[in-house]
Amino acid sequence: MPLLLLFAYVTSMFFANENAIQANNLKLETATNLKHYNFYMSDAAIWLQQQKVANAIFQYRKAKELFPEKFAVNYKLTQVLLSSCALDSLYCEDARESVIRLKDKFPDREEVLRLVAFL
Predict the structure, then answer these.
(1) Do residues 94 and 83 touch, judged by C-beta distance below 8 A?
(2) How far apart are the first and last CA of the chain?
(3) Over the range 22-40, which residues count as b (16 or more CB within 10 Å of their CB) and which as e?
(4) What does the pLDDT look like over 54-80, one tens digit per residue?
(5) What are 1-38's pLDDT values in tens digits?
(6) Measured distance CA(53)–CA(12) in Å, rounded
(7) CA distances from 28 to 15, 17, 25, 31 (A)
(8) pLDDT of residue 117
(9) What DSSP character marks residue 107?
(10) Can you say whether the dihedral through the CA atoms of 81, 83, 84, 88 is positive or negative?
(11) Taking 70 as the threshold, does the pLDDT of residue 98 lie above it?
């Protein structure tokens, strides 16, 4: 019986340690993703200042891959797609789809309603 209890204790400690390692790895992965997300968002803004819309869209899409539920990246990407459609008739279908997704995800945001009206 004592050996069985010892085995159960060692096994439970192993799984507790394994869970702690997985939680720590998830924190590190999230921190790394956040660092990349922030880079993509700031890089996209720089590309926009240089009027390189395609590059900005690319970077916003990379940021969205990391955090698809974040409002900021969805909103910025949609804004850029809409302005590109209005100015150059580029990305119009992407803009329309992005506005619809944004409205579905964030129906109560006033900024989203302005984009819907713009469409």
Answers:
(1) no
(2) 73
(3) eeeeeeeeeeeeeeebeeb
(4) 999 999 999 999 999 999 999 999 999
(5) 766 665 666 566 656 556 655 655 555 578 889 999 99
(6) 54
(7) 20, 17, 5, 5
(8) 86
(9) T
(10) positive
(11) yes
Distances (CA, A) of 105 to 17, 31, 72: 38, 24, 12
Handedness of CA 31, 36, 40, 43 (dihedral sign): positive
DSSP characters for 21-80?
HHHHHHHHHHHHHHHHHHHHHHHHHHHHHTT-HHHHHHHHHHHHHH-TT-HHHHHHHHHH
CA distance 43 to 88: 22
Residue 115 is predicted with a pLDDT of 87
d(CA 60, CA 117): 22
Predicted pLDDT of residue 58: 98
Using the structure block, give the residue that is written with the tokens 């803009």: 95
CA distance 59 to 84: 15
